[in-house]
Amino acid sequence: MKTLTLIAASLFAAPAFSQVYKCPNANGRVVIQQAPCAGGDKLDVRPASGQAPAMSSDVPASMGKPASEADRINARTDASQRERWKIELENRAVPDADMAIANGRRECQAQAKELESRGGSANNNLAGATYLQSVALQMQALATRCDTQERTLRDNYDRLLRECKQLSGCAGFAP
To answer: Which pLDDT does position 116 carry in this prediction?
Structure first.
């Protein structure tokens, strides 16, 4: 009888386990859920010893019920991914996009100077006039190409900066 009582007491004293699954969604992103899924992995989640933490207000609750463990894990994962992306934008993507604009301008200016220097070597005859016309057409094509390139680079910079500011970052960058 004592043995049976000890076994029953040890079963009730054993830690509670919650079963959750790590599953890929349609976008290829990993989602934590309580239902099994195809291609997913089973995760064993145990409550920590001690008191349970108070529920955070930024964790979604579905239909007035407390958020499930899967919802809390997904919310923390999303917040972590947003923070990492904000840091990547601030430290690398936005500065690199800004530098690409400056490098593109310098490259275009160097090419324009090289074309201008060619025009100074033309003779004052029909062949020289034809050559000058050819250089002028090349300069016009370069100006068009550089303008298109700068607009593309500027659009990329503006898009990255907007995204960074939506994540409350990039305070030191100007539009």
So the answer is: 83
Give the pairing type, strands 30-33 and 41-45.
unpaired
Residue 20, token pair as written in the block: 């959750």
Of 94, 111, 62, the closest CA to residue 165 belongs to: 94
List beta partners, residue 23: 31
Other Cβ atoms closer than 10 A to 89: 22
Q: Residue 132 and residue 120: Cα distance in Å, rounded?
A: 9
Residue 91 tokens read as 């430290």
Per-residue pLDDT reduced to its tens digit, 16-66: 456 777 888 877 778 787 778 877 787 766 665 655 555 555 545 445 556
Greater pLDDT, 136 or 21: 136
Please say whether the beta carbons of 19 and 44 come within 8 A. yes
Distance CA 66, CA 43 (A): 21
Residue 11: the pLDDT is 47
- Let me know: does 164 contact 89? Beta carbons within 8 Å: yes
